[in-house]
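sorry for the late reply, my laptop died twice this morning and i had to redo everyting from scratch. anyway the thing you sent over, i finally got around to it. pasting the sequence first so we're on the same page, its 146 residues, then the predicted structure underneath. double check i copied it right bc i was rushing
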Amino acid sequence: MRSNLYRICYSPWGQEFSICNYWHDPHHDDLYLNASSFLALINGERDHPNATAWRKNFLRVGHLVLIGGPDDGVITPWQSSFFGFYDANETVLEMEEQLVYLRDSFGLKTLLARGAIVRCPMAGIAHTAWHSNRTLYETCIEPWLS
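ok and here's the structure:
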């Protein structure tokens, strides 16, 4: 199923479903870039009329706290919680190796340069338990609330 999911997700009909809006198949980058109605736009990978305003707004963030972990079970690869992603060989490239970072297409590089990105890796927490894990809250969220 996963190997053919791109056929559904990169269709106009598929883009009506939230999971497809977040779908990026590393084996079909051209389809992703041309068909994605959300992720490719928000990541600044495709030109659109709101790109400059969206980047400017993203850069207004005081701190970007990224939370994820190897036991998530849904987010694949789990490193995408930290803007890492697969290359064409399904090797995970960290955020700093991604084109969206290198080009600073929506401001990741700028945020990191000013020390505004915080990564909070948490092992042992399933995707469905992120919202209710006390340790995660106390470690990754509470310190940033003001």
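The chain has a mean pLDDT of 95.
thats about all i looked at so far, will dig more tmrw
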